[in-house]
C-alpha cells in the first residue's frame, strides 16, 4: 500500500517503534475510510493531532479523557437520524478505558449503540509518564506502583475488561495484538460489521514505558502471546471462540527479562517467587482459554 | 395559542418546535418534568428526535457534543449537581464551538443538599464560554429557546447557550403561555446549518490539542464570538418581537427606571416580585426602578451603564454568592459602572429556595437608601 492511501498517515510524533501507532494504522485498515474515529485524551491523541497537523485521514474527534463512548453515542444517534452509514469507532488508551471512562462505556454498551470501542492497551498511563492503570499487569514497575525495598511493583492483576463488556451483552468482544496484523485487521472488520456495541482490546507495547528498544516492539508483542500472558481470542455472544493456540508455550521469564518494567524481578538477584506467580497467571490463562496446542 | 401550562411543559413545547434531532438527558429535580414531557412527545411521534437515556449528566452533554459535531441540532436540560457534573464538558462544548442549547432549571448547589431555587449553579459556569439567558416567567422561558437556538447557530456566534429559569418557582408553576405554532417557529428558526462536521466524505479532525503557540488564539476567538453575540441577540430578539409581538431586543430591560433614584438589579423570576414592590413604592412617592438582566453572558456592560445613568444607588439582588467575595451579578454591575460614581450595594437573597416577598424587596430598597448593603438579606439570626 502506498503512503498516500494510508488512512493513518506517517509524519506523526510517536516514538520510533510505538506499538499504539502501529495499532492505529492497522485498525484503520480494518475499518476502511467510511469511518468516524472518536479518541480519548492520551498519547495517541497527542502524537497524532498537534494543531494544526493531523495524521488522521478519516473524520476524527477528541473531546475529553473519559467521554469517548458517550460522544460516540451522540454521533451514532445523529448519523441514524440523518440516514448516514459511517462506522463509529472509539480508539482509546487503557487508562481511558479501564479506569476513568468506565461509566461512559458501560452506559453506551447498555444502551446498545452501534459503535465499536477499541482499546489500545499499553498497560499504563504513558502520556503522563508511566503511571499504573487498571490494565497494568502484576508486578510491573510504574511511577505510581514502583518496585522498592518492600514492593515488587504493581500489586494487582489486570482488570478483565473483555469479560465486563461481554457481560453488558456485547455480541462481539475480541482481544488482538498489533504483533499479529492480519488477525487484528480481520477482527476490526468483523466488529464494525457486527451491529450493536462491540469491543476489541489490542495489546500495544510501549517501548518508552515498558523499557525496551523500539526495534523490538513486534517481538515483545509476540512474546506476550507466546508465553500465555496475553491471549488473543474472540467472544461471540459471551462465548469464547477462536483462541490463538500456542505450541510449546515459552516461560514468562523470556517476556519479563527483556523489559525494564520487570527488571526488579531479575536484579540484583532473581526473584523466583514472584516470577513463579506470574508464570501461574500465564498457566491460568492457558487453562482458561485452552491456549496450548498439543 | 394561549395555554395554561406548567413552566417545564412550556419549555418542552418550545423545544419540540425547535426540532432537535438528538436529545440526551438525565433526570434531576427540578428539571425532570421537561425531559419526561419530551420523552412522551418522542414516544407519541410528535417529535422526530432520537432520545438518548444516558447514565449521567456527564454523558448527556458528551452525547450532545458528539451529535452536534456530526451535524445535528441537539438538546439537553439539567440543574445544580447535574450541571456541576457536566463542568468539564461545558468548557469543551464551547471550545469546540458546538451550538448546543441546554435548559437550566436553576437550583442551589450542595452541601447541604437542597433541591430548591437559587442561581448558583449556572452562575458558577459563567466562565465556560456558554451564553446564559435568564427568564423572568414561563412565557420568556418558552420564547428564549427559539432565540437561543437562532443566536447559538448564527455563523457569527457558534457558541452554546443555557436558557436559565428558576427551579420550582417557574418549572412547577402554571401560567398562561402563548405558544407559537410549529409553522411559525419553522419560519423563524430554519434548520441548523453546521460549518464543520464529522463526515467521511470530507474528513477533518475536531478537538485537536493546541500548544502554547496556538491555545490563546482559540480562547480569543471564543471571546470575540461572545462580543458578536450581543448584537446577534439584539437582532434576533427584535426579529422575534416583530414576528410574535414580544420584543426581546434588549439584553437588559428597564422597569420604571426613567426618573429612578434607586435601581434594583435582578435576574430571573424575582423580577416579577420586584416590579410589584416597585409599583407599591412608586405609589408612596419613592423613585425606585428595576433593571432586569436577561443576558448574563455575554454581559451587557454598555447597556447597563446606559440604563443606570442618572441613578444614585444601585441595589443588586444576587441569588448566588462567589464565596470569599460578593454576589456575581453585583461584581459585574460594579465593573460596568466603574468610574461613574454610582454606588453599587449587594444583597445576597433567596438562597436555597428561601422565600422572598414584596416586603423584602421594599426592605432592601430602604437599606439601599441608607447606604447599607453588601450583606446577606433575610438571615435567620436565631439559628446562627
From TrEMBL, chain A:
Gene Ontology MF, one: thiamine pyrophosphate binding
A biological-process GO annotation: sulfur compound biosynthetic process
Biased composition (Polar residues): 137-154
Keywords tagged on the record: Oxidoreductase, Pyruvate
A Pfam family matched in the record: TPP_enzyme_C
Coiled-coil portions: none
InterPro entries, alphabetized: PorB-like, THDP-binding, TPP_enzyme_TPP-bd
Domain Thiamine pyrophosphate enzyme TPP-binding: 41-202
Top-level taxon in the UniProt lineage: Archaea
Residue span of region Disordered: 137-156
Keyword Endoplasmic reticulum: no
Assembly: Heterotetramer of one alpha, one beta, one delta and one gamma chain.
Name recorded for this polypeptide: Pyruvate ferredoxin oxidoreductase
Species assigned in the record: Methanofollis formosanus
Source organism phylogeny: Archaea, Methanobacteriati, Methanobacteriota, Stenosarchaea group, Methanomicrobia
Automatic annotation (TrEMBL), chain B:
Keywords: Oxidoreductase, Pyruvate
CDD domains: TPP_PYR_PFOR_IOR-alpha_like (cd07034)
Source organism superkingdom: Archaea
Domain Pyruvate:ferredoxin oxidoreductase core: 260-361
Residues covered by the Pyruvate flavodoxin/ferredoxin oxidoreductase pyrimidine binding domain: 13-236
Keyword Oxidoreductase in annotation: yes
Subunit structure: Heterotetramer of one alpha, one beta, one delta and one gamma chain.
EC number: 1.2.7.1
Gene3D superfamilies reported in the protein's UniProt record: 3.40.50.920, 3.40.50.970
Single annotated GO MF: pyruvate synthase activity
InterPro entries per the UniProt record, alphabetical: PFOR_II, Pyruvate:ferred/Flavod_OxRd, Pyruvate_synthase_PorA, Pyrv_Fd/Flavodoxin_OxRdtase_N, THDP-binding, Transketo_C/PFOR_II
An annotated GO BP: response to oxidative stress
Catalytic activity: 2 oxidized [2Fe-2S]-[ferredoxin] + pyruvate + CoA = 2 reduced [2Fe-2S]-[ferredoxin] + acetyl-CoA + CO2 + H(+)
Pfam families recorded: PFOR_II, POR_N
The keyword Membrane belongs to this UniProt entry's keyword annotation: no
Protein name per Swiss-Prot or TrEMBL: Pyruvate synthase subunit PorA
Amino acid at each position: 500500500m502506498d503512503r498516500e492511501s494510508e488512512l493513518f498517515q506517517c509524519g506523526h510524533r510517536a516514538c520510533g517503534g510505538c506499538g499504539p501507532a502501529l495499532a492505529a494504522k492497522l485498525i484503520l485498515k480494518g475499518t476502511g475510510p467510511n469511518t468516524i474515529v472518536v479518541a480519548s485524551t492520551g498519547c495517541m491523541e497527542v502524537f497524532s493531532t498537534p494543531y494544526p497537523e493531523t495524521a488522521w485521514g478519516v473524520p476524527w474527534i477528541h473531546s475529553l479523557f473519559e467521554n469517548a463512548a458517550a460522544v460516540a453515542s451522540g454521533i451514532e444517534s445523529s448519523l441514524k437520524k440523518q440516514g448516514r452509514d459511517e462506522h463509529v469507532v472509539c480508539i482509546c488508551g487503557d487508562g481511558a478505558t479501564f479506569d476513568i471512562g468506565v461509566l461512559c462505556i458501560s452506559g453506551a454498551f447498555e444502551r446498545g449503540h452501534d459503535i465499536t470501542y477499541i482499546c489500545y492497551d499499553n498497560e499504563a498511563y504513558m502520556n503522563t509518564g508511566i503511571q499504573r492503570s487498571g490494565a497494568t499487569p502484576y508486578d510491573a514497575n510504574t511511577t505510581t506502583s514502583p518496585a522498592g525495598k518492600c514492593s515488587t511493583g504493581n500489586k494487582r492483576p489486570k482488570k478483565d475488561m473483555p469479560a465486563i463488556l461481554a457481560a453488558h451483552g456485547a455480541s462481539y468482544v475480541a482481544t488482538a495484538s498489533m504483533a499479529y496484523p492480519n488477525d487484528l485487521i480481520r477482527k476490526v472488520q468483523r466488529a464494525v460489521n457486527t451491529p450493536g456495541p462491540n469491543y476489541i482490546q489490542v495489546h500495544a507495547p510501549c517501548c518508552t514505558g515498558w523499557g525496551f528498544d523500539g526495534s523490538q516492539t513486534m517481538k515483545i508483542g509476540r512474546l506476550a502471546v507466546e508465553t500465555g500472558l496475553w491471549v488473543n481470542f474472540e467472544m461471540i455472544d459471551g462465548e469464547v471462540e477462536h483462541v490463538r493456540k500456542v505450541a510449546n508455550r515459552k516461560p514468562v521469564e523470556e517476556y519479563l527479562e527483556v523489559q525494564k518494567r520487570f527488571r526488579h524481578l531479575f536484579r540484583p538477584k532473581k526473584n523466583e517467587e514472584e516470577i513463579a506467580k506470574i508464570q501461574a497467571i500465564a498457566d491460568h490463562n492457558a487453562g482458561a482459554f485452552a491456549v496450548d496446542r498439543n | 395559542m394561549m395555554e395554561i401550562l406548567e413552566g417545564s411543559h412550556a419549555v418542552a413545547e418550545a423545544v419540540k418546535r425547535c426540532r432537535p434531532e438528538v436529545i440526551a438527558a438525565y433526570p434531576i429535580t427540578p428539571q425532570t418534568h421537561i425531559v419526561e414531557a419530551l420523552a412522551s412527545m418522542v414516544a407519541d411521534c410528535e417529535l422526530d428526535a432520537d432520545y438518548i437515556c444516558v447514565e449521567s449528566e456527564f454523558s448527556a452533554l458528551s452525547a450532545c457534543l458528539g451529535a452536534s459535531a456530526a451535524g445535528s441540532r441537539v438538546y439537553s436540560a439539567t440543574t445544580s449537581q447535574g450541571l456541576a457534573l457536566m463542568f468539564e464538558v461545558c468548557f469543551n462544548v464551547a471550545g469546540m464551538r458546538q451550538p448546543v442549547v441546554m435548559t437550566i432549571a436553576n437550583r442551589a448547589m450542595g452541601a447541604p443538599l437542597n433541591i430548591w431555587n437559587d442561581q448558583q449553579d449556572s452562575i458558577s459556569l459563567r466562565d465556560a464560554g456558554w451564553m446564559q439567558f435568564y427568564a423572568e416567567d414561563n412565557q420568556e422561558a418558552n420564547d428564549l429557546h427559539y432565540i437561543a437556538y437562532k443566536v447559538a447557530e448564527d455563523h457569527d456566534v457558534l457558541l452554546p447557550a443555557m436558557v436559565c429559569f428558576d427551579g420550582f418557582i417557574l418549572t412547577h408553576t402554571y401560567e398562561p403561555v402563548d405558544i407559537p405554532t410549529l409553522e411559525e417557529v419553522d419560519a423563524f428558526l430554519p434548520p441548523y446549518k453546521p460549518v464543520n462536521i464529522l463526515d467521511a466524505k470530507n474528513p477533518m479532525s475536531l478537538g485537536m490539542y493546541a500548544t502554547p503557540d496556538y491555545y490563546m488564539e482559540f480562547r480569543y476567538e471564543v471571546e470575540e464570538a461572545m462580543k458578536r453575540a450581543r448584537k446577534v441577540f439584539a437582532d434576533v430578539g427584535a426579529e422575534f418581537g416583530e414576528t410574535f409581538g414580544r420584543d426581546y431586543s434588549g439584553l437588559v430591560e428597564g422597569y420604571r427606571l426613567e426618573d429612578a433614584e434607586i435601581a434594583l438589579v435582578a435576574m430571573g423570576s424575582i423580577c416579577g416580585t420586584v416590579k410589584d414592590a416597585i409599583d407599591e413604592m412608586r405609589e408612596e412617592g419613592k423613585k425606585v426602578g428595576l433593571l432586569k438582566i436577561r443576558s448574563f453572558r455575554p454581559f451587557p456592560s454598555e447597556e447597563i451603564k446606559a440604563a443606570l445613568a442618572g441613578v444614585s444607588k444601585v441595589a443588586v439582588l444576587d441569588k448566588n454568592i462567589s464565596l470569599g467575595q460578593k454576589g456575581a451579578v453585583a461584581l459585574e454591575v460594579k465593573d460596568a459602572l466603574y468610574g461613574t460614581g454610582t454606588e453599587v450595594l449587594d444583597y445576597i437573597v433567596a438562597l436555597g429556595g428561601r422565600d422572598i416577598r414584596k416586603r423584602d424587596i421594599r426592605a432592601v430598597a430602604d437599606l439601599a437608601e441608607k447606604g447599607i448593603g453588601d450583606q446577606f438579606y433575610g438571615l435567620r439570626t436565631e439559628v446562627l
